[in-house]
Model the fold of this input.
Amino acid sequence: MGEPHDFFGRGTTAEDRGQPGQFAGPEGVAVDRAGNVYVADKSNHRIQVLSASAIQREAAPPTAAPAPPTTLPEAGDPRVAPEMLTDSQRTEILSAVDRANAAWAKASETLDASGLGAAVAGPELTTDLAELDQLRSQGQTRKNTNTAFAVIDVTLDRPGHATVRTRETWFAELYEASTGRLVQRTPATTYAETYTVEYLSGSWIVTRNEL
Done:
């Protein structure tokens, strides 16, 4: 459907990966709020992305009826990206960060990607799916535990685009997926993290997280 885009894993060559749209052991599918479809192409060591626009073009009937007149959104409409960082918007932005972390932790522990598309989008969804693909290939699950979380600042860079800086402490436990045996426990580590949070489809969602 359309022209797939690739996000390659480390250590792969063009010969290893095959052409876009060719799958070898697809495992794990997620859809973000924009309608883009992310597929973990396991044996090709990559994430393939089918854009929403391409899917819509190919699914459209040969002759489409004229679109009805549209009404421009007004202030207060949920489709309008917030322009001011009010207390309520700050709370919603931080809630989006919490949802992203919770979905990532659950997916890592269960190897189930179905909840990621509602909590993260864009590059962050691609990154999280790649992490799951790596865990599956190693036959492991990972339990991520947060022991400290402090918000440093929240800024609204432009309408609908926010940045959140935090200081967080995490430790992780790796388990064999087949037996549940503990393989490794990493020491608690503190990270300075920067989240990009965007206003998409009427609500805030994390699209990038950088350490």
In short: The first strand starts at residue 5 and ends at 8. Residues 95 and 201 are 16 Å apart (CA to CA).
